[in-house]
Structure formats: C-alpha cells, structure tokens
Automatic annotation (TrEMBL), chain A:
Organism of derivation: Mucilaginibacter pineti
Name this protein carries in UniProt: ABC-2 type transport system permease protein
Keywords recorded for this protein, A-Z: Membrane, Transmembrane, Transmembrane helix
Record-annotated membrane-spanning stretches: 20-41, 62-83, 103-122, 158-175, 182-204, 224-249
Pfam family, one: ABC2_membrane_4
UniProtKB/TrEMBL annotation, chain B:
Organism whose genome encodes this protein: Mucilaginibacter pineti
Keywords, comma-separated and alphabetical: ATP-binding, Nucleotide-binding, Transport
GO MF term list: ATP binding; ATP hydrolysis activity
InterPro entries per UniProt: AAA+_ATPase, ABC_transporter-like_ATP-bd, ABC_transporter-like_CS, P-loop_NTPase
Keyword Transmembrane helix in record: no
SMART domains referenced in this protein's UniProt entry, alphabetically: AAA
Protein family: Belongs to the ABC transporter superfamily.
Residue ranges annotated for the ABC transporter domain, each copy included: 7-235
Name of protein: ABC-2 type transport system ATP-binding protein
Keyword Nucleotide-binding tagged: yes
Pfam families: ABC_tran
Length: 256, 304
C-alpha cells in the first residue's frame, strides 16, 4: 500500500505541465465558457430565467449536451493515451521498469492517475457550471437564482458519468500500453467513438462500450426507450478491459 | 579460487523474435568493488546483455545472479541496490532536472537532500527551471547519471555513459565514477566501444564480439594478451633497403599501405632494428606499436 502511494505520487508528478493536464483544464471550462458568453449576449433573458424552478437542472442539461456526447469521451481517449505516451515519448519505460516496483503497482498507479484526472475534470466542470450559472447574473445585477442547487441530483449524475467513461479509459489504457505510436490508440479511440455515436439509436447499441456517456445524457430525454443497466455494463466492461490490459502489459517481452 | 561476484551470468543466451541468436553463452563475472569495462563494437550485444541483466528483456536461456541471488525471484531487492542507465538518456522532457529526480525520489523514498547532492556531483546544479528536453546531449547524459546515483546504489550499470560528452566531460565523469568506486566501494559496470575511453578507469574487462564473450579478466591480463598479440609498424623512406635489413635480421614483416608491420619483437630486437636501419642509411620516420586499438585486439582474438 505504501508502495502504491509512493508510486502514485511519482506518477502524479510526471503529469505536471504535460499536454494531458492542460487538456483537463481547457476541456472542463470550454462548455461553461461558451454558455457564459451566450448568456451575456442574450442578457435580456437572464432575469426571467433566474426565477425558474428548474434553473439548475436546465443549466446542467445544456452544459452536459456537448460534454456527454463529445468532450468527455474524447477527453478520456486523449488523457489515457497521453499519460501512457509520456513513457514512450521520453524513452522512459526502461527507467521506470528498473525501479524497484512491482509491475502491478506501476500499472495501477498509472491507471489511478488517469482516473484522478477524470475526477479533477468533473470537479472543474462542476465549478464551471456553477460559475456560468451565477456570473452573468452578477454582471447584470440580476438576482441570484431562486432555486437552491440540487446537490444530490448533481452528485448522482457526476458519479454516473464518471462510471460511464470508465470503459473508454480502460480500453484506451490497454491499447496505449501496447503501442509506441500515439496515433494508434487515438485512431482506434476515434473510430470507436464515431461508431458509438452511430449506434445510439440501434437496439444493441449499448454493447458498444463507448456509448455510455451519451446514453446517460439521453436517458432523461422524452423519446428515450432504450432501457438497460448502464452502470452494470460500464463496470463490467471496465473490469474486463482492465484485467486484459494488465495481462497484456505483463506479457510484454521487451519492457524497455 | 573463492570469489564473490556481485553480478554473474551463466550461459546467457538470447535471440530476438526476428531470428538469429544475438547472445551466446555469455558468462559475465563482475567482482565486488571492481570497475568492469564491458567492451564491444556496435551491435556486439552489450546493450542486449545489460537489458537482460536488468530484467528489461525476458530471459530465454541461462542464469542471472545479482548480489549472489537469482535475479528472477529477487528482482525488487536487487533493483533497490542498482542504479542503471541504458543507452540513450531516459528523461521526462517536460520536467526540470530537479523534478526528474523527484520522480525517482518518491519511488525510492530517499532523502530529498540527495537531489541537490547528485546534481552537484554531475555539475548540473545551475539548470534551475530549464526543462530536460532543452538540455544538450551532454547535459542529458549527466542528468541520467545523476538519476542512476540518486538512491546510493551499490552497483552501477552504465551503458555508454560518456556518449555525447566533450573530452572535459568525459574526464569529469571518469573522475566521479572512480571516486565513487574508491570512496564508497560502488561496483561499476560500464560499457563502451572504445577501450581507450575507459582504459584509465577499469580494473576488469569483458570483451564481447558478435554475441560471444571473447575475453574476460583483469586489465593487466588484457594488457599481457595485447602485447603478446601486438604488432609493430615501421615506416621508412626506402622500401627495398628496409626489406633487406629485415630479411637479414630474420624478421617476418608484411608491407601494406606504405608501412611494414610485424609481430611485436623483443625490446632488444627493436633497438637493434633501429640501429641497423639507420646504419644502412635509411631515414626512419616511424617505429610504433600497431594494433593497440580494440578493433585489432578483436581481429587478433577472432583469428586465433
Ligand atoms: N529490439 C530488437 N529487435 C531485434 N534485434 C535487436 C533488437 N535490439 C537489438 N537487436 C540486435 O541485437 C544485436 C546486438 O545489439 P545491441 O544493441 O545489444 O548492441 P550494442 O553492443 O549495444 O551496440 P552499440 O555499441 O551500437 O550500442 C544487433 O545485431 C541488433 O541488431
Ligand atoms: Mg548499445
């Protein structure tokens, strides 16, 4: 356990100033910024909307629209590929694999860094949503939204989105551990993501593991009839991919 | 003879997936507290051997013992005591020198003060916030050495550590390694393709050629072999007169590229030859030992 903590700290340091860590920040604030600007442009509607009983839920929905279908899956694809790519790009697998660490610890520490970055991303995104909800109002002297923030709803949804992107992270991690060339994991990731968008209305679409973020967004829609245990599917795929990734990682004949 | 080896391989063999055997029956024996020079031309198999020893390649044949223990089962304990640098520098380009060391410090759990200390040792104290990607090759090499030294290992494995260093840098690194060896008793395995480069620091030498170990022993033993197999080269202004002098003295010489070469004669014989040549009016331009370089020793070892 101490080993894992040390290893995680070490992995966490590597992420500093890397492209992946910038991506988290930019990705998280992108949509809230767009919404803020849109609200400022149409500031006439601010006063009316701040009195709505479902002010926060509506804001949540519109914030998540591009996020769930587009930014979150792509962010997960890029983040997990970039973190692993650090070792290939710098030629540091041989450094890492001659440190006295169990392979399992290295594997889990890296995966944990990606997962914590996803959490970071969600937290920043939530802060962004909050700011886009109150800042335009403050700017134009409109009263604070009447509805209290539906904390439980937000937290449940955050949790569901986090679980929904786990299969993407695990499969991308699996692929990017195997290939030196960064384009391979990113290319495969993009193809799977495009596929996942294409199969959303197909009855068996939920078997494609990259669909869950989109499905989680669509589930509250009026026309949505595609019922399946999303969390179970996501966790199942996550476990399957993680175990496979670990086995393949161990089997690598050249460790640097 | 009872000797404890800090690193030993027994009949180590390896072939890559694409075919031919790259290593055959390598039996390295690195005594404790030695500086072991691992020599070989490009593609001889130095890096492959060292990667196997560190567990970076999956072992296929033979045995590897580190600190007297089989490596496979004691991988972590052994790695804890080894500092390694394999071929091109392994650094995180987006991090500074200190941050690179910090990454390792977290894993080894060694005191943070070591970071400034090893940077000082390799002369990189003043790089501040400069990213490692912006370092010159020599600076990268130095940082890699610092990273290998961070956790005070008792065995250092360095694959061509002076690659890319200027002459001054080479001397500095050599002094540093020698002092580590003398003061702290650190065993050092250092690979190179130039004997001249490491001659001044090694106590033991292993020579690998096309995946086979041709020679292993102390530097003194190598020097004996070298003078036994060494040649003398002779350069004069007059080929025919020189030939007759050589014939008269019963020396077997070959003429090639304007110079004569011959098996190294006894010292008295060399003196006599010089006297005889000058006596017969030949201008003597050069009389020097030839084939002292590694390549010649290889050729010698392969042909004999
Ligand atoms: N990953 C690999 N796959 C296939 N063959 C390899 C691989 N790595 C090395 N080889 C082959 O193994 C042989 C030995 O290579 P190695 O890198 O050990 O040489 P070296 O002694 O370190 O040479 P250098 O002085 O150039 O560093 C070479 O013929 C090389 O082509
Ligand atoms: Mg090499």
């Amino acid at each position: 356990m101490i080993q894992f903590v040390q290893s995680f700290e070490s992995e966490w340091l590597k992420r500093k100033r890397s492209l992946a860590s910038w991506l988290v920040i930019c990705g998280a604030f992108f949509t809230p910024l767009v919404i803020t600007v849109a609200k400022i442009v149409r500031h006439g509607a601010l006063a009316a909307s701040s009195r709505l009983p479902n002010y926060w839920e509506a804001l949540w929905k519109s914030s998540w629209e591009s996020m769930a279908i587009f930014l979150l899956p792509l962010g997960a694809i890029l983040a997990s590929s970039l973190i692993t790519q650090l070792e290939f790009k710098n030629n540091t697998w041989k450094l890492l694999h001659t440190t006295p660490q169990r392979y399992g610890v290295i594997f889990l520490a890296k995966l944990s860094v990606i997962l914590v970055m996803m959490l970071q991303f969600l937290i920043l995104f939530n802060i962004g949503i909050y700011l886009s909800g109150v800042l335009p109002g403050l700017l134009f002297g409109v009263s604070y939204p009447a509805e209290p923030i539906p904390v439980t709803y937000f937290m449940t949804e955050n949790g569901r989105y986090f679980l929904a992107c786990l299969p993407i992270i695990a499969l991308q991690y699996l692929i990017s551990l195997q290939f030196k060339n960064f384009l391979v994991p990113v290319g495969i990731g993009l193809v799977l993501w495009i596929l996942s968008v294409a199969v959303l209305s197909w009855p068996y679409g939920h078997w494609i593991p990259y669909t869950y973020c989109s499905f989680n967004y669509l589930k509250d829609g009026p026309k949505f009839t595609h019922a399946f245990p999303l969390i179970t599917f996501a966790l199942g795929y996550f476990l399957l991919f993680t175990v496979t990734a670990y086995i393949l990682y161990l089997q690598r004949k050249e460790k640097g | 003879m009872e000797q404890s080896y800090i690193l030993e391989t027994r009949a180590l063999g390896h072939r890559f997936t694409d075919g031919a055997a790259v290593l055959n029956d390598i039996c390295l024996q690195v005594p404790e507290r030695s500086v072991y020079g691992f020599l070989g031309a490009n593609g001889a198999g130095k890096t492959t051997t060292l990667r196997l020893v560190l567990g970076l390649l999956e072992k296929q044949q033979g045995e590897i013992l580190l600190f007297g223990q089989p490596f496979g089962r004691n991988r972590l304990q052994a790695l804890q005591r080894i500092g390694a640098m394999i071929e091109s520098p392994s650094l995180y380009g987006h991090l500074t020198a200190t941050e690179n060391l910090l990454v390792l410090q977290k894993i080894y759990g060694c005191p943070k003060e070591r970071i400034a200390l090893v940077l000082e040792m390799v002369g990189l104290s003043a790089t501040g916030s400069k990213k490692a990607a912006r370092f010159s090759l020599g600076m990268k090499q130095r940082l890699s050495i610092a990273m290998a030294l961070l956790h005070e290992p008792s065995l250092l494995i360095l694959d061509e550590p002076t690659n890319g260093l200027d002459p001054n840098g080479m001397i500095e690194v050599r002094e540093l390694l020698l002092s580590l060896n003398r003061k702290h008793g650190i065993t050092i395995v250092i690979s190179s393709h130039l004997l001249g480069e490491i001659e001044k620091m090694v106590s033991h030498v292993g020579i690998i050629h096309s995946g086979s170990l041709l020679f292993q022993g102390t530097l003194a033993e190598l020097q004996q072999q070298r003078s036994a197999g060494g040649r003398l080269s002779l350069y004069t202004d007059d080929q025919s007169k020189t030939t007759s002098v050589l014939r008269a003295m019963n020396i077997q010489a070959t003429f090639d590229g304007g110079k004569f070469t011959m098996p190294m004669p006894q010292q008295e014989m060399i003196a006599a030859l010089a006297k005889e040549l000058i006596g017969s009016g030949v201008s003597l331009y050069e009389l020097s030992p030839a084939g002292n370089d590694l390549e010649a020793i290889f050729m010698d070892m392969i042909t004999h």
